[in-house]
Protein: NADH-quinone oxidoreductase
Organism: Thiothrix eikelboomii
Amino acid sequence: MTQELVTIEINDQPYTVPKGRLLIEIADEHNIKIPRFCYHKKLSVAANCRMCLVDMAKSFKPVPACATFVEAGMKFWTNSEKTQQAQQAMMSFLLINHPLDCPICDQGGECELQDVSVTYGQRHSNYQGIKRVVIDKNIGPLIATEMTRCIQCTRCVRFGTEIAGMSELVSLFRGDRLEIGTYIEKSLQSELSGNMIDLCPVGALTAKPSRYKARAWEMQAHPSIAPHDAVGSNLELHLFRKAVLRCVPRENDSINETWLSDRDRFSYQGIDSPERLRQPLLRRQGQLVAVTWQEALQAAASILQQADRSKVAALANPNSTLEELYLFQGLMRGLNIHNIDHRLRQIDFSDQTLAPLSPNLGVSIAELEQQQAVLLIGSNPRHEQVLLNHRLRKAALQGAKITAINPRGFEFNYPIAQLFVAPSALVKRLASLAKASLVANQSAIPFALVELLQSIDSTEADQTLVAELQAATHKLILLGNLAVQHPAYASLRALATVIATETGARLGYLPETANTVGAWLAGVLPHRLSAGRAVTPAGLAVTAMLQNPETVVLLNAETADFANPAQVSQALAQAHNLIVIGAFADQPLLDHATVILPGSVFAETSGTYCNAEGQWQSFQGAIEPIAQARPTWKILRVLGNASGLPAFTWLSSEEVALALTAELDAAMGNYPSYTLNDLPTLQALQLASATEAEFERVTTVKLYREDGLVRRATALQARVEDTVVELNPVDAANLALQAGEHVQISQGELSLQLPVRISNDLAPGTVGLAAGDEATAVFSSVGLVRISKRV
Ligand code: SF4
Ligand code: FES
């Protein structure tokens, strides 16, 4: 549809612009300055601050530019006397109650009110009365409040309802008593709450962790990429005296728009954690002792050279950079070690040879919000991929039909149909939907799925869901973390493929970490080399290689990063040698490490992350690695030299990335493709289901406990929920348990005492026990647990 163009005048200059656009948007595009406080391009128009008043022809009163839609022939003056008078008057009103505390305000130097008042205000105030004082609120560990400074622009309030999907800050009272606050004093819970700090045009909401540590003009901005989820949010690290003092979003409309998740914003606090590995360590006479880099590298190289190659387990965290991952697999393969993997939380690898080159979204991030129907399988995107969830929320609010099939219910912040069943019933639930899609098209059951599908009868609800998917033009099926980590992942993927094929939807993945896509491309896999090239014979996958390893090499991984931390601890205890390369090491690693090579975090190295849509984003290190730590890619490069690998000659991380690019180019797109025809027959995996005494464990990793850096970010840790045992109300009643009561939860010989939470988000016969804490690390993430009342 072509947009009607009209001609208007601003400051006596003609502009041809689309009819109906907001005057403030046109002014911004043409670099015509109009002051504003309540207007924000990503929020609805409130027009309550009146700071953007401009003089309009044929109007007695000036009009707000943020609420004026242009029509042909309109004329505006943004700098006439009438405009200036209006702006000065509004500044006076806004400053009536605002304290003159700029010298002690953390926002000083980057405050919109300060800037606008200098440019558009008056030298003196005519106000002689008493200023209003508003009592501060404690809204949690991330945001500090000084509510007397608030000018009630309501950006934070609108952000909550329109973007975060949680109405946490609200307008209380009326008129000159109006205050912004929470109805009851409580911490903000939104995973996007930190964006309110950026939105607040004054110093009412400031970042608590960095408060009073430096003035805005003393910091240097350094562009970087977020290291946690697969969004690859663009951000700026603000440096003060060679340390990262805070982190803010860098606008990129196709990725993170103007937003940043709290995880990406505050995880920088882990960079100088006391738990950082600071110097090379070598075990001598049972103790880890500090040694030189040369000694540590020689020790690591000699362990690798002398190891029985078939008994080496080489495991990398997929949140490592592309360069680190490429060098890691190059090092191992150069030494003829093939037990290499990055899928630390995955259990089922039975269809790995047919997996696509890399698990990505299948559409661009921006396209997510254009979907009309989305089926999420095994995913809580609000925690897994905060800003992809924001895109899905936009789609839902525009009318998209979103359905989630999960092993438990989650708190979504948009309208969604949730279907949740016990983990052991998940395959059957999806099979029912797949059968409905085959029946709708009168298609034959694919050979590999005959056993799974022939005895399944689909329900009417499934048929309706299939019809909705078929009717939509833009539709997507997404496999999330809980699907990938399910013991019958191959079946879930095959069934999702059937539904996608029969409904014409695209099948995509919500990759688990910042560089899961990159780990696949770099070939940190037992069955594929870099660029997706097959390797025969394949090495062992993560669970198999940890059965009885003699040598373990960990890159940026701790036991808490695995599906079964207890199995990893046991493997480390049995192994003769453990080489740790990374920035952090949890207790089992410290107890068993032979050599520790202290590496970098994202802010201390150059590198590349490949995000969910497959976009490579490179960044430079902002600060030097802590103490004696070194950029991890350099450690791997030098370890390659020490191990006698002649190909390890790269001089920069850019050269390493180029080597992988060349391999991908040489592969000429000749990558493996996932086809149902090649799948071996899939059988219904008989997962143990609940009995009278036992319950199926449903495991999700706690938000802010997913990786080493986040686990050390102190402010975020204050937001981590207490560990509880979640039970369905029926099961709780059968066990005569009340909320808050302590129970004994056991798996095998191990038990814990934890309080109970009663939740309608659990299916009967299941128990919710989140992973990510030291306490629960003793349990496997899947399988049965026993619950008994504490006596
Ligand atoms: S706290 Fe800040 S963002 Fe919220 S209404 Fe007040 S001035 Fe606006
Ligand atoms: S910016 Fe226009 S009224 Fe506030």
User: Anything to note?
Assistant: The first strand starts at residue 5 and ends at 10. Residues 426-441 form the longest helix (16 residues).
